[in-house]
Amino acid sequence: MALLTALAGWFRRRLVVLAGLLTLGYLLLPNAVVTVFSFNDPKGRFNYTWQGFSADAWRDPCGVPGLCESLGTSLRIALWATVGATVLGTMTAFALARYRFRARGAVNALVFLPMAMPEVVLAASLLTLFLNLGAELGPWTILIAHIMFCLSFVVVAVKARVMSMDPRLEEAARDLYAGPLETFRRVTLPIAAPGIAAGALLAFALSFDDFVITNFTAGATVTFPMFVWGSAQRGTPVQINVIGTALFALAVLVVLGGAVVAGRRKR
What digits encode the pLDDT tens for the residues 123-134? Predict the structure, then answer.
């Protein structure tokens, strides 16, 4: 009886930690499967069952025609979409958080529309817009579409950070004879930087990973998600798992690097 009571107390004290670990394991389970099957040696076209260990796909990740080309296309579009959405979203967030102007409420509502609208409806609307304008579908239409739907997420991230800032810090800078530009560069921007970085990373991930909107606005352009979808119809090459594992590892390194830098700054 005493042992059961001790176990129950130990479980209660660590319930939150155990629940967090279980949730984290559940979230990372697909990534673990992708990593394991990047070392698979399938006998046929489909990489869905374990056949044996092989590192051949890691030695030649671009062995599948069109794979690295589509990956490069996705990376370029995601990079430029991140730059565009971050710049526009940061300016919009500062305007909404700091200034009072007519139609401010309407702008706030419009910012959230791309986040609330079903993605397939948004994609069809964008396709209709581009066709009515006579635009040729391709990388530019994908870029415009990605900036448009990533913008909302950047605004939300940056606006939350700006609204939590203490305005007395900027007032103190002005009391010390700092001009508006110097105050923004030395005080406002460093404080808002974590929110801007979070919005930029979120925009990059959303742009790189998007399939529905890209499929409607791509024309003949093939991005990495579209290549994966097309390959799944004929068989999934192991190199796709290799690229996915490498991108996941890179994302983990970026997050760990950010945590290390933040820890050093606090110390």
Answer: 999 999 999 999
